[in-house]
Amino acid sequence: xxxxxxxxxxxxxxxxxxxxxxxxxxxxxxxxxxxxxxxxxxxxxxxxxxxxxxxxxxxxxxxxxxxxxxxxxxxxxxxxxxxxxxxxxxxxxxxxxxxxx
Length: 101
Fold this sequence. Notes:
Layout: E1 2-5, E2 9-12, H1 21-36, H2 43-56, H3 58-79, H4 86-89
């Protein structure tokens, strides 16, 4: 989110502690767990977070992943749907499953 800065045009807003502290803590813990472990349901999220960690650092990646998890949870609650990771809905073929002609 950005806001106008009178001297330089636009600038980023400072980090706030808005929202429920326990919810923020749980999202950060979930994100850190996804980044450390290899859950097959969250492989795409983990890969995304590792790319961010390589560029910006581990803590930035964890916070970014927590924000993405919050967005996913909000969409699930809003739509009343069930989380189905892309890798579970459309499994990728393994090397042994490829058929050569």
